[in-house]
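Please fill in the sequence for the structure shown.

STRUCTURE ENCODING:
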């Protein structure tokens, strides 16, 4: 897999019965197929936990939800200590350009969640935004917020 613009982390790997490479997901507590997008997702989860002090127990991966009668999946959702979501992350493979189409996807997902923070990453580029779901506005942040910032808004 491609080296990402994130710290290097150690992962557990194995081969599936069909010969596909699998990576252990510490959040879901199981091996999942190692795709380029999954490679980014696993790195970004570790980045949030190890570098940005997000409590592992408040991070969820591939959260299913319904939107316009269709089932969708949020790549990463982060919750506060009351169990309310506070940040959504959309992960793409490193080969996928982070562009307006990708932002449209996460902004549309945020219509459902109405969160203050959204993040998009392809493992090479990472963008965080502060949103106003009522006004349907967002502005770019200089960096990915740490967990304390999510909770205090500072």
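FILLED IN BY: designer on duty
SEQUENCE:
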């Amino acid at each position: 897999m491609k080296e990402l613009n994130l710290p290097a982390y150690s992962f557990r790997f194995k081969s599936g019965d069909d010969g596909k490479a699998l990576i252990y997901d510490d959040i879901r507590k199981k091996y999942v197929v190692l795709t380029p997008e999954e490679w980014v997702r696993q790195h970004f989860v570790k980045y949030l936990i190890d570098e940005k002090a997000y409590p592992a127990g408040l991070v969820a991966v591939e959260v299913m939800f319904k939107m316009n009668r269709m089932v969708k999946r949020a790549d990463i959702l982060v919750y506060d200590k009351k169990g309310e979501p506070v940040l959504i992350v959309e992960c793409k493979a490193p080969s996928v350009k982070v562009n307006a189409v990708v932002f449209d996807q996460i902004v549309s997902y945020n219509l459902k969640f109405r969160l203050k923070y959204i993040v998009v990453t392809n493992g090479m580029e990472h963008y965080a935004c502060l949103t106003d779901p009522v006004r349907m506005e967002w502005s770019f942040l200089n960096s990915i917020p740490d967990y304390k910032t999510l909770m205090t808004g500072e």
